[in-house]
């Protein structure tokens, strides 16, 4: 009686989940005022900055649909690269990126495929293109060939926040 025969010790490293929790909290804080933005450009700037600065995504761009021209216009681009100081982004009215917008389904692009960042930033190995309903398209670049799971989740959250903010500001 009173003798301990077995001691069970449970140790769990929660560093990764705590970091994710803090990151998502920072994203929530950065994007909670999107509906109060003065313009669509402000919404786009807030989201691209949050993508690179808070979520540590290597490259984020927003293209908004211009009805008059019938093209996607580069509206906000932010990236973190040691090899590139500026990007040349053009309006998109056809091709694979346009097809993602008109098709309404996200797609992942790999090296050697036409995309937004792959041809311009050497360290970008894959990118995720996410349509924003009738508003436009979000492009997110990653340094991993298979687009990491956490970066994919972050990109989807960013896309949802962006689409919601655009819809509220444009209505």
Quick take:
This protein is an alpha+beta fold.
Structure notes:
This protein is of the alpha+beta class. The protein has four helices and five strands, in the order ααββαβββα. The chain is 36% helix and 20% strand. The longest helix is centred in the C-terminal third of the chain and has 22 residues, at 149-170. The protein is globular, with a radius of gyration of 19 Å.
Secondary structure layout:
Elements: H1 15-31, H2 40-54, E1 59-66, E2 71-79, H3 96-103, E3 107-110, E4 126-131, E5 136-142, H4 149-170
Antiparallel strand pairs: 1-2, 1-5, 3-4, 4-5
Notable traits:
171 residues; alpha+beta; 5-stranded antiparallel beta sheet
Helix and strand sequence? HHEEHEEEH
Would you count the extended β strands for me?
5
- Residue-averaged pLDDT: 87
For the biggest β-sheet, the strand order reads 2-1-5-4-3
Which word captures the global form?
Answer: globular
Instruction: Extract low-pLDDT stretches.
Output: none
- Based on CA atoms alone, the radius of gyration comes out at 19 Å
Strand content: 15-25%
Distance between the termini: 73 Å
Count of helix runs: 4
């Amino acid at each position: 009686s009173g003798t301990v025969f077995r001691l069970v010790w449970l140790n769990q490293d929660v560093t990764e989940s705590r970091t994710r929790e803090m990151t998502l909290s920072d994203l929530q804080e950065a994007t909670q005022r999107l509906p109060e933005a003065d313009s669509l450009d402000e919404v786009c700037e807030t989201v691209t900055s949050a993508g690179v600065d808070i979520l540590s995504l290597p490259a984020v761009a927003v293209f908004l649909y211009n009805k008059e021209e019938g093209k996607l216009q580069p509206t906000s681009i932010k990236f973190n690269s040691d090899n590139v100081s500026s990007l040349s982004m053009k309006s998109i009215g056809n091709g694979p990126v346009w097809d993602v917008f008109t098709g309404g389904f996200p797609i992942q692009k790999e090296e050697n495929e036409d995309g937004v960042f792959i041809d311009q930033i050497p360290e970008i190995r894959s990118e995720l293109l996410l349509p924003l309903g009738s508003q436009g398209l979000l492009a997110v670049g990653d340094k991993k060939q298979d687009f990491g799971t956490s970066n994919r989740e972050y990109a989807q959250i960013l896309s949802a926040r962006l689409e919601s903010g655009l819809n509220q500001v444009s209505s």
